[in-house]
Structure formats: C-alpha cells, structure tokens
Amino acid sequence: MDTLSRRHWIFDLDGTLTVAMHDFDAFKGAHGLPPDVPILEALDAMGGPRAASLHVRLADWERDVAAQSMAQPGARELLETLAARGARMGILTRNTRAIALATLEAARLDGFFTEALVIGRDEAPPKPDPAGAVALMRRWGAAAGDAVLVGDFLFDLQAGRRAGAHVIYLDPSGDFPHRAEADRCVTSLIELLES
C-alpha cells in the first residue's frame, strides 16, 4: 500500500509538524535533572513537592516554546493533501493537550485537528507507551495496518511500532540513528508528497 493512500495519520508534534525548538538538555541541566533520563520519567521517579514544582516550570517553559512554534517545511502541504483525500489525522505528543493546541495555533496548523484528536500526556501515558496511538485508532475504527505514525524521535517510533502502525521516521539531518524502528525514513515531510 502506498503511504499516502493510508487513511489514518498520527503525528508527533514538536520536531515533526513543527521545527524542533526544545533544548531538553538545557532544561535538565538548569533544574538538576539527570542528563540520561527523559524529563517526564525523571519527574515521575522524583515524586513529591519538588517534582510538582518542576512540572509547573516545565509547563511554563513548554508554553513559551509553543508561542514561538513554526511549521516544519512541507507540513501544511502534507496536511492539506491528506485532508483533501479524506484522511483522518490526530496528534500524539508528550506535551499537554493545551500546549499542543497552542503550538498548532502558533504554527498555523490548528485548522487540521480537532481538540479530541490531540492526545497529550494527560490523556494517555506518554510515548513510548502506545496507548495514545491505540486510542486514536480505536476512535477511528482503524485497523493498525491502515494507520501511519510520523515522528522524529525514538519514543515516537517505538509507540507507533507497538501500536502496529506503519512508522515514518523524520530526521532532517539524514542520520537516522533509530532506523531499525521505522518502516520508512525521510529527511523532509515533502518527501511524503512524492510517494
């Protein structure tokens, strides 16, 4: 099956539909979090009042980044093409739904997604857990083989693979360090329009 003919599309947001702007290492360094543990997992392991305080700081930082969001090259064209073909589209992010919606608005991509189809860390366990992807597919009544998950990070790819979706790995650098987790690798969303 050719990629664009699939009817159900799940997108990561930051670094996939929008240009990557988060400096996670800087946030971890500034707040004394372990450099080799993802932020959400580090806060979950920490627990207590300090974790609660850092969750607030994290949300503030994410909100600031969201306000500066820019669409990834080819994102609007891809979404317009999929919408014209009648594809169903959702977002699966490790961010909160509210911040994801603000990101979409700032990047002028908000018209393609309904709020209910934006799954954040409050609606499902964060990626690499596949629960959010599975929830979207269930809402659509989609078979896993007809679903595509597009992401730029290992956790995106793992979530898509575990959910049974066709996994597309976006890496503008062309390095693809997690190539083994993907069905297809692209350096630009525009490449998907050429398939």
From TrEMBL:
GO terms for molecular function: inorganic diphosphate phosphatase activity. It is an enzyme of class 3 (hydrolase). Keywords: Hydrolase. Gene3D superfamilies: 1.10.260.80, HAD superfamily/HAD-like (3.40.50.1000). Its EC number is 3.6.1.1. Pfam families: HAD_2. Transmembrane segments: none annotated. This is Pyrophosphatase PpaX. It comes from Engelhardtia mirabilis. The gene is ppaX.
